[in-house]
Structures are given as structure tokens and as C-alpha cells.
Amino acid sequence: SEFIKKSYCRAAVILLGLLCLFLLIGFITVVFLCEYKKYVISMLKSSQPKLLTDCQGNWVAFSDSLYQVSLEKKSWEESRQDCLQKGAHLMIINRREEQNFVNQFKKSLWIGLTDSETDGRWKWVDGTRMTTSYWNSGEPNGGRSENCGEVRFYDSENSWNDAPCSIEKFWICEKRVSP
Ligand SMILES: [Ca+2]
Ligand SMILES: [Ca+2]
Question: Could you please report the per-residue DSSP string of 44-103?
Fold first, then answer.
């Protein structure tokens, strides 16, 4: 019976040891999962503010619109057509936040601005007159030979330039989300 007692004791110690081991593994797993969840949430949060990209066609959400920078270069008119085909229009800049947003791409881009009809009378592609402008110093300077607007001097808030409409450039389309 002394032998049986010792065996029971040994078995109890082993069981206790295993129990401790399982508890430890369980604890580590829970801590790991919690930390992983926190990490995933922080990643999602940090990627959200401005550049929430759509899976299809790389549209970028900002304020109440979606924007898409082209991957190829075209003339201003062909750029305008491309945006129309996508149910959008060349970017129209109405607010200072939008102006700062477009500069962030650090790219020379056609926007929806033209004075083709009457020189010096700048209009947006939706027919509205340009009221607030962000011309770079000395611009617009092209007279009858530069009738299309582009974002060019993007390191400055006043980044606009007038350029000949036939030049091939990247462009930016804008699609309004709310009517
Ligand atoms: Ca002009
Ligand atoms: Ca110019």
C-alpha cells in the first residue's frame, strides 16, 4: 500500500504540473490575441484619415468626394473626357482644404480649369466661374496660348499654372459622393 500511495502522489504531482502548463499556455495565448487585436485596430485607424483607397481603380476619399490621379499623360481635353467616362469630372477646387489636398500628391496635374472661351475669364468644367484662386506668383501668364489650368508648384499652397491645353500631363478626376 505504501507503493500505491507513492504512485498516487506522483500522478497527482504530474497532473498538477500539466494543469499549470495548460494555464500558462492559455494565458500566453489570450495575451497574444489581445495584443494582436490592438495592433490590427491601430493599423486600421492610422490608415484611415485621408487616404482611404477604394479597391477598384485607386479612388481616394477626401471630404465629400473621391479622387483619382491618372497613371498616364493626356492633353487637357482628353483628360476631361476620361473623367466624364468614369462618371466624374476634372477636379474642381472650391475650398482651401481641397487645394492643400491636391498638392499632397506632389505631381503636376491637369485640373478642371480653363479660359478657352474668353481669355482671362477662368471657368471650372461644371460651368461655374472661378472665384477663389491659387495661382503661383506671376501666373496666369500665358494669354491666348495657355488656356488650361494645372497644379504645378505643389510645394507652395499657390500651386496653379496656366499651360497650353495640348500638352500631355497627368490629371486628377473628382467624383462627388453626396449630391
Ligand atoms: Ca489664357
Ligand atoms: Ca503659365
Answer: HHHT-SS-EE-TTTT-EEETTEEEEE-SS-B-HHHHHHHHHHTT-EE----SHHHHHHHH
Ligand 2: centre distance to CA 39 (Å):
48
**DSSP letter string, 133-145:** --BPTT-S--GGG
CA 161 – ligand 2 centroid, Å: 5
The pTM of this model reads: 0.69
Q: Calculate mean pLDDT across residues 88-100.
A: 97
pLDDT tens across 109-146, in order? 999 999 999 999 999 999 999 999 999 999 999 999 99
Cβ 63 vs Cβ 98: under 8 Å: yes
Residues within 5 Å of ion ligand 1 by Cβ? 115, 119, 147
Question: Do residues 147 and 168 lie in contact, with contact meaning Cβ atoms separated by under 8 Å?
Answer: no
User: 57 vs 66, 69, 70, 121, 170, CA distance in Å?
Assistant: 11, 10, 10, 34, 15
Residue spans of the domains in the chain: they are 1-48, 52-176
- Under CATH, what is the fold of the domain 52-176? Mannose-Binding Protein A; Chain A (3.10.100)
